[in-house]
Amino acid sequence: MTKAVHIEVVTSLSTEAFLAVLRRFIARRGKPRTICSDSGTNFQGTANDALYKMLQSTSQMATVQDFLATERCERKVIQPHGHHFGGLWEAAVKSINYHLRRTLGSQVATYEELCTLLAEIGACLNSRPLCALSDDPFNPTYLSPGHFLIGEPLTQLPVADFTDVKCNRLSRWQTYQQQLQQFWQRWSSEYLQSLQERQLWQRTSHNLQTGHLALLREDNTTPLPWPIALIKETHPGKYGIVRVVTFRTPRESLNVQLQKFALYRV
């Protein structure tokens, strides 16, 4: 199963706004076969009272059901108080919310800025490598969720690096670019760490092998591109554990220790 993320901005918690978002999604991604959603009991509270009332309203949900029936889409509702049944999409939403709060903070964004920021954040999430796409050592590529959406890797227009520039020296557009770059740095770093969990003194892990395609962790990478390296040779230590490898990048060939350069197998 491959999950891709699509983020939309909703101006109000109403049936009309929900149908407008759904129509935009269908126009861009095509008709979904099945739509899964929460039952509404997870949204009780002062901040989410409008959403709870919409999902519990018989007349409003009848309008939604009529639209889905016309489009031949099936709607499935998870069990009440069972938000863990939607763990597949809840994990993506949690990742977005966590880093978006740390990036935006108390700044107020316009509708256009927020739509653009969320669209490019979705592109960052959909650019993550899933597995190696080719065994050709001269053309190392990887498969990403973006391939399932547009048939090729997602790209972004190059911009200057505003990560360490003070906000009072930036325009509104440059501030938005800085927020995107800060989100990329934090999220990509955590994603790389999740690919290689170290189980010390509990279980053994597989060594890197010659010909494996690996991700190279670098500090100054722009959003969406993932630096890749092809392992040319491994150098096991005294106990057969690989701690030094020789890998080749599109730019150069290096012989380094794994403590200096973090490698993550694709």
Q: Any descriptors?
A:
single chain; 266 residues; alpha+beta; 5-stranded antiparallel beta sheet; two-stranded parallel sheet; 9 strands; 38% helix
Describe the structure.
- The protein is of the alpha+beta class and 266 residues long.
- Among the domains are: 1-81, no CATH class; 213-265, no CATH class.
- The protein is 38% helix and 15% strand.
- It has seven helices and nine strands.
- It has helices at residues 15-29, 49-56, 58-71, 87-104, 111-126, 145-150, 172-195, and strands at residues 34-37, 74-77, 131-132, 142-143, 213-216, 228-236, 242-248, 253-257, 263-265.
- The strands form three sheets. The protein has a five-stranded antiparallel beta sheet, with helices on one face. Strands 1-2 form a two-stranded parallel ribbon.
- A hairpin with a 4-residue loop joins strand 7 (242-248) and strand 8 (253-257).
- Helix 5 (111-126) runs parallel beside helix 7 (172-195).
- The radius of gyration is 22 Å and the shape is globular.
- The two termini are 16 Å apart.
- The model has no long low-confidence stretch (mean pLDDT 77).
